[in-house]
Amino acid sequence: MEVSNEEGAVYRTFVETYKIISFVMGVGMIYPNPKTDKRKIVCVLLMLISIGPLSVMILNDMFNSLAIRDYVNVIRHSTVVGPFLGGFFKILIQFYKRKPAKEIMDEINRDYASYNDMTVVYKNIINSNIENNLVYSEKCWAITVVTCVSSFPIMAVLSNLHSSLFSTEPKRYMIHDIMLPYIDPEQRFESPIFEIIFAYMLYACVLYMINFIGYDGFFGLCINHACLKMEIYCRSFEDALRENNERCMHWKIVKIIVEQNKLKRYVDLIQDTFNIWLGLILVATMIQIGTCMYLISEGYALDLRYLIFIIGTVIHIYLPCRYAAKLKHMSMETATLIYSGGWERLTSIRTRKMVLYMIARAQIPIEITAFNLMIFDMDLFVAILNSSYSMFTLLRS
């Protein structure tokens, strides 16, 4: 279901509101549009074929390094190729979960269309939420991903310029150095092999950015919208209790209960859509942080690229934990907001019982889990960092 927007509407569709995330999701073949399913399959297959040679070359170099026990080089490759291939796995997950993802989009579109008829007080709440989404879940996240990934080609370009301008014997630097099969190791720095591999890796960097900006940013927008829905119906409850007409008050509270039920179904859609992905990044980032720390401490030199990369990895797992913790806190806060809304002024026993059930339901925290097992919150974030450090000490020993 698409929401038609009249001219002059304050709140428009998801695509028109979050243009960066929507564009990247479209380019990355993860935007949930049933009309483009066949096109997505063809494009994803072409992308997989295009990155196949690079993946094979890196895996081959990892195997050779493992054979000679060069574990630092194995970790250096796995640090990069793991998340890169994981990005394509996210495309497959999103295609598999395209129906609940589409329902999430439709729910956001319907809500934004209904917000155009609300009063200024509600629009201030909505504007604050959308502004927060645009700044943190969209722009800041996009900048974080671009910074982490672009540090590799930028450092390579700067190193090549510095070497050619100030070194008597100029050296060439790849974006990510790999040993190419079937040729002499030094030949990878000769023309045109060096230029071809450099351009190929630059293409891989673009795919890297696309795969991480869209899907992960979409999760943050979904969670923040759930918090907005709760904030709005809590405010609506306060307004409903100010009604002098008891019948009108009763029906307004019924509508709020309907919204409470809609929120539960909406969160279930989020859980269904992102359940597998959350489990994968939980395990992947825990390993990633530990191996990056080992690479920085035991590598050949302190590499700024991997230092930036480890910061990006920590942010990558922090944000889902932070969003999920925010949702959990807001869901429990609604019980307090409803209780403090002025229910004591109610004279109808029937309406009081309805409020009682609303509070009882709100006291059950809404939680986002990975693999339907691990609850995502800030406690999990701390546990992941502790496990990553334990892995780091184990690798060093």
UniProtKB/TrEMBL annotation:
UniProt-recorded Gene Ontology molecular function terms: odorant binding; olfactory receptor activity
Keywords of this entry: Cell membrane, Membrane, Olfaction, Receptor, Sensory transduction, Transducer, Transmembrane, Transmembrane helix
GO CC, one annotated term: plasma membrane
Gene Ontology terms: biological process: signal transduction
Subcellular location: Cell membrane
Membrane topology listed for this record: Multi-pass membrane protein
PANTHER family: ODORANT RECEPTOR, ODORANT RECEPTOR 19A-RELATED
The protein's name in its UniProt record: Odorant receptor
Source species of the chain: Heliconius charithonia charithonia
